[in-house]
User: What shape does this take?
Amino acid sequence: MKVVGDRIYLKLIFFGTALAGKTTALEWIFYHVIPDEMKLVKELRQVKTSFGQTLLFDFAPIEISQNVVTRMFSATGQDYYKGTRTKVLGGSDGIFIVIDSQKEQLDNNLKILRELWKCQQEMEGLADAEIVVLYNKNDLEEIHSMEFLQEYLGLERHEGFSTCALTGHNLEDALIAMLKKLTARLQAGGFDVE
Amino acid sequence: MENISVLVRRILDGTPGVKAAVVIDSDGIPIAIEGDIDMEPEDLGAMLASAFQCYQSLGDGLGQFYCEMVMAEFDGLNVAQQMMPRGSLVLVADKSCPMGVIRIAVRTGKQALFEVMETTANARGRFMEEHKFRLPKTGTSGDKPHPVSLLSFLEKKKKG
Assistant: This one.
């Protein structure tokens, strides 16, 4: 969290394996959930590879309340860009962990979660970030259940939602859960926000 | 203490060919933008901070402590980004403005801004510590309508 002028800036990250649906989730939220008057830009800023995947980040700043700006990023999931991925994590107030529920992605989920936990130990303040988990791709058939993934990946203590980023299923509820956590954090810090 | 915007404007006006001068903090939050630049400030700040962090990562890989400056030549513009404590100064210039001139201007600008950034950061830290419970001002004041928060909006929407 940063205070610049009369504005509070929060940073919210979508973090997960490559092709887990981070960008799709951010796009769905930006274009279907956020009212236009709260968007500080008309379009998502996306830094993509030549083959269309996220190179550095996708970015959308929104004013979630008067003078409170949330800068939403989806980090790249590509291991090739691991160096920048962890940079994007720095200073996050909230993290949406996007789990790819497909059975074949189980190990990749574990791997990226280990990276996140390591970053939390090494990066100042990251351990305090609020976490909401999106168990994504619930529309597919060859997937693990949310309950299995919660236990196997050690995510039981974090609030989670079974989601489909393509259709937006449960994304709005997940966003509400995150906003409640961030608002409570601001209020606990003495800020008078809704 | 001189205002950052005044200093940035002076840097802009003092170098022929420079179209815009921008100061962002280390996370890309725009602190001051002077001149003609056709991008949303938030967008610009995020791009600049991330681009700079990419070079910082490259430097880490090459065994360097920090990235001092990044310069870019586009087809119609030259850009220089100079690291400062807690942020960076960026100059955007026409192609007619030689890179060497921009380089000197951005370095000189850094010196001028150094002191005021230092003071501003200290003042901001102290201000937050002392008065954070009063920031930001929310609620109705004067004729300004009270905007609903995203959380309230979504909760109401969910309830139908």
Remarks:
- The two ends of chain B are 52 Å apart (CA to CA).
- Confidence is low (pLDDT under 50) at residues 131-144 of chain B.
- Residues 114 and 152 of chain B are 42 Å apart (CA to CA).
- Helices of chain B lie at 4-13, 41-61, 99-131, 150-159.
